[in-house]
Amino acid sequence: MRKKLRNNSTPQEIVLWSRLKRKQLGYKFRRQHSFGKYIVDFYCKEKGLVIEIDGCQHKKDLHQNYDTERTEYLQRKGLKVLRFWNNEINNNLDGVIFKILESLK
Q1: Which of 20, 39, 77, 93 is least surrounded by CB atoms within 10 angstroms?
Q2: What is the pTM of this model?
Q3: How far apart are CA 81 and CA 30, in angstroms?
């Protein structure tokens, strides 16, 4: 499943990955990393940071409940979760990178 997700990345995942890969922000990130039954978009093991990119489907009640459950599960594991909307990646990539850098401190 993870390989399928990596091979079918959204445009926003591709753009953000281009800024995260090869330790460009000073830390190694993984794409489509598994935690139990969940697969997260990006994960920095060294800092315990998960980054999720959400599209409009995440505004629906069913997805909101799932996202809340997933975030709580990850937080119980001691991870910090950052969520960004697709339009944030599209319209304010520098701001997204700034927020990620702040979380890596």
Answers
A1: 77
A2: 0.89
A3: 14
